[in-house]
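User: For a reading group we're discussing how well predicted structures match intuition. Take YegS/DAGK C-terminal domain-containing protein. Before you show the prediction, I'll give you the sequence so everyone sees exactly what went in.
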Amino acid sequence: MPLGVVPAGHKQSLDVATITQGQNRFFSVLMLAWGLIADIDIESEKYRWMGSARIDYYAIQRIIRLRRYNGCIKFVAAPGYETFGEPADPEGETISEVKSSFAQHKGYCGPALQMKDFNRKIEGPFVSVWLHNVPWGGEDTLAAPDAKFSDGYLDLVVIKDCPKLTLLSLMTELSKGGHVKSPHVLYFKVKAFVLEPGTQLDDGSKEGIIDVDGEVLARGKGTYKSNYKTLMTYDKLYIKVDQGLATVFSPSTIS
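Assistant: Thanks. Here is the predicted 3D structure of YegS/DAGK C-terminal domain-containing protein, as structure tokens, for the group to look at:
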């Protein structure tokens, strides 16, 4: 393409999620995964020589030797989804970009979080927690079929427990989004989200991996390449979305 030529198309607003842990910030436009999906995505890197087949191959391995994780998620439900989870006691704290030294020295760090608003929770153990900003998790993975590019919400896909054979079947439904109809899957929208990750249910000496936009954000003890340094620690994370903060070019307008 000649220099200076802009491809024909439309501008599309895109939500941006801010992930906060202390003074550390990470901006996400795609997804956050913890549990089964994160383990498959990151640990299958050892089979990159297999190409895209590595995901399916390792998914079978990981489901056969299924892990469940202790932990808790808290959230501010989107309108119409307030019945999901159980009531949570407000934490009473505020994370604000106005008073943050991060904001003073490194620029924008995301919207303020009023912790008193986090009034719903789901306790573990969990098989998988998958938080999505857009419908697709990959070229053939319709992870969150109701997600919109700029609706101001994140789509949450949670599996707490599921028979292994059923879980294998759900993996085959990912290409068309049918997995969210399963009674073993909780699928709903949130305005903001807190992840409190814990240890593996069957081995308290091992923790998990937190995967954001396909990259490792945090690795717990005993995980794949756990000696590698990560931006954040395997501990509580706060996530909130800014509606339409980014603008992307697209061949057509996407709702």
